Amino acid sequence: MDRGKLLLLTLGLVCTACPNPNTFTTPRTVAPGQVQHTVSIEAIGGFDDEDSIVLPALPSYTARIGLADRLELGVHLSHLSSLGADFKWNPVRSEAFDLAIDPGAQAFYIVGDNSLVIYYLHLPLLLGFNLSKNASLVLTPGVSMIGVGGSFEDDHDDNVLYGASDTAWLGRLGLGFDIRASKKFSVQPEVTFLKSFESESGVLFLAGVGFKFGAQPEY
Less packed terminus of the chain by CB within 10 Å, N or C? Predict the structure, then answer.
């Protein structure tokens, strides 16, 4: 089994430590000092040439805080089990098209007989096609990194610990559709696919719906 397959298998077995690459946002930022609250429900799945699987994931929460004009901080509680953050910068904004850069990170720490850290770095571009004042199509191409590390007891001596770690880079592509029902509420279904650059690995995906309350970007 290659490194990419091993990391994806780890994610499947440790379901509470699954990644959350979905953004549930558009390129436009909320106004400085305003806050948007997002609750999302999702499912995680994967497939390759031989098999496929889909599993439910715990809900997630995100607070998006306007820091300055076209700059926003996102604070995440992903799947009720990990913390994360992102910074969204929206340099391109027009009536028909918006663009933002949205680097972020997410991490889990699992403690037991052995300790395990699983972390993700995400670097998507947010491409927003504004179909009207009430709807936008959002594409999120980019890259992500998965890292796994920890300390483990020696099989023959419980007093001896050894460490191990591994990382893998993945390409990512997401598709979302933001529907703005009012000035205080919007809904965004979204799906994001992750594919390791290891050619033998399968495809991981997260699909869900984000419900956004409070501040909304101006269109």
Answer: N
Q: Is it the case that residue 11 has pLDDT exceeding 60?
A: no
Closest among 145, 124, 174 to 4, alpha carbons compared: 145
Q: What is the CATH number of the domain that holds 89?
A: 2.40.160.20
- Non-local CB neighbours of 168 within 8 Å, separated by 6+ positions: 3, 4, 7, 145, 146, 196, 197, 198
Domain residue limits at 46 = 3-214
Residue-wise pLDDT for 61-97, tens only, equals 999 999 999 999 999 999 888 899 999 999 999 999 9
Structural domain includes residue 81? yes
The length of the chain in residues reads: 219
In a domain, 219, yes or no: no
In whole angstroms, what is the distance from residue 195 CA to residue 188 CA?
23
For residues 170-174, average pLDDT: 94
Residue whose C-alpha is closest to residue 42's, from 22, 26, 28, 62: 22
pLDDT digits (tens, 9 = 90+) for 88-113: 999 999 999 999 999 999 988 777 66
Count of the separate structural domains present in the chain? 1
Locate all alpha helices (DSSP H) within the chain, ordered by sequence. 3-13
The DSSP result for 125-172, as a single string, is: EEEEEEEETTEEEEE--EEEEEEEEEEEE-SS-TT-EEEEEEEEEEEE
